[in-house]
Amino acid sequence: MNVKPLSDRVLILPNPAEEKTIGGMIIPDTAKEKPLAGKVVAAGPGTSEIKMEVKVGDQVLYGKYAGQEITVDGETYLIMKQSDIFAII
Hints:
Strand order of the largest sheet: 4-5-1-2-3-6
Oligomer: single chain
Largest sheet: 6 strands, antiparallel
Strand content: 35-45%
Structural class: mainly beta
C-alpha cells in the first residue's frame, strides 16, 4: 500500500460489520451498522503542535461519522484526524 497520511491524519482499516446477532439471527447488508472500531494501518508524523499518540497496529474507537472513506487496492479504509479517535483499545 502506498498511502502515507500527512500531518496528524491516520489511516484505519475498519473492523468487519457484525454478521449475526447475539441470538444467532443473520443481519442483512442493508441493516448492518457501520463499525466504530478499527486497526491503524498508517499514521502521519504529527505536527509541531500535535504529538501523535496512535501508532500502526493500534486498535482504536472512533465516531460514527468520523473520517473519509477511501478505497485502495480494493480495500476500504477510513482516513481521519487523530482528534476524531476516541480511544485506543
